[in-house]
């Protein structure tokens, strides 16, 4: 079953994709925040997994993504068996915000219907503040055929008056391009958290946002619509 270049390395994502139980082996390949790492032991703590990427558990939360869309938090001293079936990868979320009593808190709160949508869609996401602006970041968003790469992170600027005010445009990292090399109009670059994000300037018509109806889910449908048009050369 193992298709890695080195037969002695067990790639746990391959076994999860095939719904197979990873065999006991000498070394295990796993992904943390899209980067591959190799462990010489099957059982690691959350702290040890974070250490592969040089991350401090005081500043980063660790999550395990499993087959079927499960996302489970992993505590720093919690043990994880890489040979356990179904483990696809690991990802982190930076925790820098506090509510003043030592309890971790979100930078701001999304409406309950948006939280339910993100949960039901099994999306990896975070909210953060940058230069006093509110942002929602969704990782690994699928893109239509015709645009490259096939997936990218998408950021949305959330107005303080949302959902009464609209979500406008979308921002991507890495930047998108057309697979055929066709020019895509109305693109720009902005800095968000010290990174260069590609801004897609696409806007609804006047009064196009419907307070009480439109929300994160409908805006992402709008984003998918204008991405599909761009993929088709429109």
Q: Strands, helices and their partners?
A:
Blueprint: E1 9-11, H1 12-17, E2 27-32, E3 35-39, E4 43-45, H2 46-52, E5 60-66, E6 70-74, E7 79-81, E8 87-94, H3 112-120, E9 125-130, E10 133-142, E11 147-148, E12 151-158, E13 170-173, E14 177-178, E15 187-192, E16 195-200, H4 216-231
Parallel strand pairs: 1-2
Antiparallel strand pairs: 2-3, 4-7, 5-6, 5-8, 9-10, 10-12, 11-14, 12-13, 13-16, 15-16
Domain Multi-ubiquitin: 28-94
Pfam families: Multi_ubiq, Prok-E2_E
Organism: Rhodanobacter denitrificans
- What's the number of extended β-strand segments? 16
Query: How many domains in all?
Result: 2
Rg calculated over all Cα atoms: 20 Å
Given the C-alpha coordinates, what overall shape results? globular
Low-pLDDT runs: 1-5, 96-105
Structure classification: alpha+beta
Q: Order of SSEs, N→C?
A: EHEEEHEEEEHEEEEEEEEH
Number of helices: 4
* Percentage beta strand: 35-45%
Report strand order across the widest sheet.
9-10-12-13-16-15
Distance between the termini: 43 Å
Largest sheet, if any?
6 strands, antiparallel
Overall pLDDT: 86
What is the helix content?
A: 10-25%
Brief overview, please?
Residues 28-94 form the Multi-ubiquitin domain. The chain is an alpha+beta fold. Helices cover 16% and strands 36% of the residues.
Walk me through this protein's architecture.
The protein contains four helices and 16 strands. Helix content is 16%, strand content 36%. A hairpin with a 2-residue loop joins β9 and β10. It folds into two domains: 9-94, Ubiquitin-like (UB roll), CATH 3.10.20; 112-231. It has helices at 12-17, 46-52, 112-120, 216-231, and strands spanning 9-11, 27-32, 35-39, 43-45, 60-66, 70-74, 79-81, 87-94, 125-130, 133-142, 147-148, 151-158, 170-173, 177-178, 187-192, 195-200. The protein is globular.
